Each structure stands twice: as C-alpha cells, then as structure tokens.
Amino acid sequence: MKLKWKPKKLTLVIIPDANQSVVRFRVPHLFAYIAAACFSLLLLITLITYALHAQTTKKANALQAKLSGASQQWNATLTSKDKAIEQLQNEVIQLSQQAEQMKSQVEEMKKFENDLKSISGLDANETGKAVASATGSSKNKSTEEQTPPAATSGIGGSPNPASQEAIMQLGEQTSASFTALNSEVKELQTSLTETKQKVADKQHQLAITPTLYPTNVKIVTSTFGYRTDPFTHSPSFHSGIDFGARENDAVYATADGKVVSTGKDIYHGNNIVIEHSKGLRTWYMHLNKILVNNGDNVTKGSTIGLVGSTGRSTGPHLHYEVLKNGESIDPKPYLKANRKDD
Ligand SMILES: [Zn+2]
C-alpha cells in the first residue's frame, strides 16, 4: 500500500459588507507557520531595535550631562585660574615696586653712611664711589620715578593692559633686582660695621685729643713762642699760652686722660699734668686750687682746678701747655672747641 502525503490546508475567510460575497483563501498549513514565524521575527527585531535605541539614547543623555558638568567645571577652573594669574601678575608688579623702593632706601642708607663719615671727619670719598657704583644700575631714573605714589595720593591714566610677556619680563627683572639688592645689602652691612668701628675710633681719638679751650675766657695774654720776659724783660721762650681768665674761674681738662702729676713749686705754682695718649700731655699752671688727685681719670671738659696766680706769675691767669713726647708745642692748632656744655 502506498501512503500519499496530503498537505493540510487552512481556509481564510474575508467577510466584507453584508451585501457582498465572502472571499475564501485556501492556504497550506506551512504558509501559516511561516507567516507567524515572520511576524514573530519582525516583532522581535522591532523590540530589540527599540530596546537598543532606548539604551543608546539613555547613554547619550548621560554622556551629554556628564560633558556639560565637566564643561562647567572646566569653565569654573579656567575662571579661577585666570583670577589667580591676574593676582600673581599684580603681585609681580607690587614686588617690582617694592624692589624699586628698597633700591631707593639702600641708596638713602648709603648716603646716610656717607654723611656720617663726613660728619665724623672720615674719608667720605670711598663711600661716595660706592654710592656711585651702586646707583649705576638705576642712575638714569629719577628718584621721583623710582618712588611709587603714596596710597593716599590720586592715580589715573588711560587703560593700557600689560601683556603676559611684559609681566614675565617684569618678573625676571624684579627677581634680578632682588638678587642684586641682597648682595648690596650684605655689602652695606659690612661697610656700616666698618664705618661704625671707624667712627668709634675717631670719637676715641677726638676724646683723647686736647681740642677744648681750658677756660671759658679765650683772651690770650701771651702766645706760644719768643717774647720779652715779664720779670727780667729779657728775650725768652714762652712754652705755652696764657689765658687772661679771672681768679677762681674753672679750669677744664682739654681731653680725656689721666692725671699723672699734681703739685706746687715756685715757678709753676699749683699745677696739674694730664696724660691723654701715648706721648701727648697737657699742663695747667698757676692754679689757685687743684681739684683732682694724682692718678685720677678725667673726662674732656671736667673741672680740674681754679684759676689763680701762684708761682712765677704777675696776676691771675692760666698758663696752658701741650707737650708731645716731652716737648712743648704750640697749643693753638689744637684749640678748636668750646667746652661741651658751653
Ligand atoms: Zn705763661
């Protein structure tokens, strides 16, 4: 017996309006399965496509949001950086102004040192040269240009923004200025220390040099040198200066020193010898009274005795001598100053 495969068929009925005839389709079963499969596949593809699209859109939105956030953050960072740069640039300008101010101050200090040397009678030329060399870098600028305006004074002008390059250059110049200033200040410190020592030495030298008048009265009744002797009327040598002071006028030590002799004899009367430095002494004669003792340290201008007419004297006066290495010299070149509290 022979089996015959007879494919099953489906009948599709389309029913239009009531007054029209019914349309029938007879299709094999397989067609229906294929159609259902195609429909399912199409549906699946549509669903997958929709799902992928939704996912992509979501990702894109998230990415866009992230980008937007990053962009905002970046803009904020840029703004903050711009502000920081602007602040730094302003600081560079301020520093450069400070460097100029410091330069002026260093010059002032050098000038001050120079003046100090001049006042103290030290050689100021040396410092003058130092000032000239130090000002070399900025000698073309006037002091007015170097000094920035005071905070309270008005400032103005047309806006002229500085370029970044100009600020960079200013920064480099300022750095160089500070380096130079640092070494100048170090030199100045050394120089000032030396000057301080020199001034101290000079002060000491001045203190031990008999530059004071020994009495308030500066009338000279007999100078140093040859004269006619007031007692013998013969030519003789007068080894000091006579001051026409009155009886009991104060007699001053003409420099710091040590009393090395006090005494009385028929020629010098009451007299005092003070040693000031090696080889330099002063001698005060014909005193009415001696107010110091042998070995006393005396300061310049201190009262050591009273004017009198003791010894070989015609009347009240002070015979004053300056001795160098035991030899009487003219006191006149030494007499430069009044007593300090005059
Ligand atoms: Zn005399």
UniProtKB/TrEMBL annotation:
Keyword Transmembrane assigned: yes
InterPro entries membership: Cell_wall_metabolism_enzyme, Dup_hybrid_motif, M23ase_b-sheet_dom
Q: Which spans of this chain does the record mark as coiled coil?
A: 71-115, 178-205
**Domain M23ase beta-sheet core residues, every copy:** 237-331
Using the UniProt annotation, give all residue ranges assigned to the region (Disordered).
Answer: 127-163
Give residue spans, biased composition: Polar residues.
Answer: 134-150
What protein name applies here?
Answer: Peptidoglycan DD-metalloendopeptidase family protein
